[in-house]
Write a structure and sequence with these properties.
- The structure holds two protein chains of two kinds.
- By secondary structure, chain A is an alpha+beta fold.
- Helix content of chain A is 21%, strand content 38%.
- Chain A has one domain: RNA polymerase II/Efflux pump adaptor protein, barrel-sandwich hybrid domain (OB fold (Dihydrolipoamide Acetyltransferase, E2P)), CATH 2.40.50.
- Chain A contains four helices and nine strands, in the order βββαβββββααβα.
- Chain A starts with a strand and ends with a helix.
- Among the domains of chain B are: 146 residues, Probable tRNA modification gtpase trme, domain 1 (Gyrase A, domain 2), CATH 3.30.1360.120; 86 residues, Aminomethyltransferase beta-barrel domains (Elongation Factor Tu (Ef-tu), domain 3, Beta Barrel), CATH 2.40.30.110.
- In chain B, α3 crosses α8.
- The chains are: A alpha+beta, B alpha+beta.
- Chains A and B meet through β4, β6 and β7 of A and β1 and α3 of B.
Chain lengths: 124, 387
């Protein structure tokens, strides 16, 4: 299992050929209180960089992009009733969706946890 | 992840360095996130977050730093001369202000559009007889003051008050907090002004605000601002509140935000602010844009500001198109967001008048989808002013 990060502050946690996508702790801290998450329908085919979800915070609407290409195999329905999970546990219960990866080699273009931490340090 | 629309980026930011209020260091020490707003670096939220700050203000007392707003006074040889001078720019009854009374009004342009909205107060015990106190918006204050200076007669002088800070204490427990420091303030009613000494600090205060709650706006010498802020926050009923919750609170209260819900094109009649235009002024005129405003009062405006309650959880924000049941474009959202007290997304916007009646079903276009909503009376959350 490995976790990879984008410069747009999405993460993808990879187990086999399935990636779980969410936003990072830094992202949720910048967004503030999340009040709603719009999730894609199951079976949707996303190319890397496609809009995968929309996070509505008290302040703003923010797009969440697919970190890698794949097909949506699950979405986190718990967020409908408890969108605050994105703030409280972004890497855990605040996940957004699962992708069946279509091109795992794309993961090599994303940041490691260490690289992402350095990236966040450089912008904050 | 990219912000497609953020309150932090809505206002165009000047290239000039950002100003800070006397409380900037106190905000940082409290863990505030500081953002550019109207040329100032201001706290958008503290660590507890906007939702918690919003709820705290509705249930206890929230303390806001609004020192970025423009405080000024008009000084004439006597009150009547100063009042008549101001009445050439606004449509409220300024002449009829009693000592210690405050009014809400708008500076108007020749086309009847709103240059700014502001609070005007006649001090109860003025230092000089012809004084009128003004509080205008931060983002418009320089233009307002230039306009006033260009229009005022020679014997009425505008004095800006950059040496003063402004705090707002808002919420159901705000009045008791202030009254424990200055018992005489308990008798003040909504839109009354006065002076007091709070914990040894002389202030000028008015029973008003921008949240729909009871409370005070408190003008204080900048050098005393930190001491007063710290003293008020020492009370366990009081917590600091940032601009994020200020926006969600005023939205629930149905109060327009200048530059969004009202601007140079919107008239006070379209904006639902006709109540602020005094009967005497309607009859006598003598304010900019009186022809359009008179026609709109008599025959109705071409659009009206309405409140909208949305179904579902997705907010419709500024610039979202508003559709009728047949899908025709009938207006646009000017502010919107999740309303914590209502527990649903709400918005305000302008629609053509035949769709302005409460209960009218509307569509709101968000990211290509049409969300369902309906017109509801404002405020969304009842005002709790002390009458």
């Amino acid at each position: 299992m490995s976790v990879r990060y984008t410069k747009d502050h999405e993460y993808v946690r990879v187990e086999g050929d399935v990636g779980t996508v969410g936003i990072t702790d830094y992202a949720q801290s910048q967004l503030g209180d999340v009040v709603h998450v719009e999730l894609p329908e199951l079976g949707r085919v996303l190319a890397r960089g496609d809009e995968a979800a929309v996070v509505e915070s008290v302040k703003a609407a923010s797009e969440v992009f697919a970190p890698v290409s794949g097909t949506v195999t699950a979405v986190n329905g718990e967020l409908e009733a408890a969108p605050n999970a994105v703030n409280d546990d972004p890497a855990g219960s605040g996940w957004f969706l699962k992708l069946q990866l279509s091109d795992p080699a794309e993961l090599d273009g994303l940041m490691s946890e260490q690289d992402y931490a350095a990236f966040v340090a450089s912008i904050s | 992840m990219v912000d497609s629309q953020s309150s932090e980026t809505r206002a165009p930011q000047a290239e000039a360095p950002l100003a800070e209020t006397a409380l900037a260091a106190a905000h940082r020490a409290a863990g505030a996130r500081m953002v550019p707003f109207a040329g100032y670096l201001m706290p958008v939220q503290y660590p507890s977050g906007i939702l918690a700050e919003h709820v705290w203000t509705r249930t206890s007392a929230g303390l806001f730093d609004v020192s970025h707003m423009g405080q000024a006074r008009l000084v004439g040889p006597d009150f009547e001369t100063a009042a008549r001078a101001l009445e050439t720019l606004v449509a409220a009854d300024i002449l009829g202000l009693r000592p210690g009374q405050q009014r809400y009004t708008q500076i108007l342009n020749e086309e009847g559009g709103i240059v700014d909205d502001l609070m005007v107060a006649r001090p109860a015990a003025p230092d000089r007889p012809g004084e009128i106190l003004l509080v205008v918006n931060a983002g418009t204050k320089d233009a307002d003051f230039r306009l006033m200076n260009a229009h005022l007669p020679a014997d009425v002088v505008l004095e800006q008050m950059p040496e003063r800070g402004l705090l707002a204490l808002q919420g159901p427990r705000a009045a008791e907090v202030v009254a424990e420091l200055a018992p005489e303030t308990a008798a003040m009613a909504f839109m009354q002004t006065g002076t007091a000494v709070l914990a040894g600090i002389p202030v000028a205060l008015s029973r008003s605000g921008y949240t729909g709650e009871d409370g005070f706006e408190i003008s204080v010498a900048a050098e005393d601002a930190v001491a007063l802020w710290t003293r008020l926050l020492g009370d366990e009923r009081v917590r600091p509140i940032g601009l994020g919750a200020r926006d969600s609170l005023r939205l629930e209260a149905g109060l327009p935000l200048y530059g969004h819900d009202i601007n140079q094109e919107t008239s006070p009649v379209e904006a639902g602010l006709t109540w602020s235009i005094a009967k005497r002024r309607r009859q006598e005129g003598g304010f900019p844009g009186q022809i359009r405003i008179g026609q709109e009062i008599a025959g109705g405006p071409v659009r009206r500001r309405v409140g909208i309650l949305l179904e579902g959880r997705t907010p419709a924000r500024e610039h979202a198109d508003i559709l009728d049941a047949a899908g025709e474009l009938i207006g646009q959202v000017t502010s919107g967001g999740f309303a914590p007290t209502v527990g649903a997304p709400i918005a305000m916007g302008y629609v053509v008048p035949e769709f302005a009646a409460p209960g009218t079903a509307l569509g709101l276009v968000v990211r290509g989808r049409t969300l369902q909503g309906r017109v509801v009376p404002m405020p969304f959350v009842p005002h709790r002013y002390k009458r």
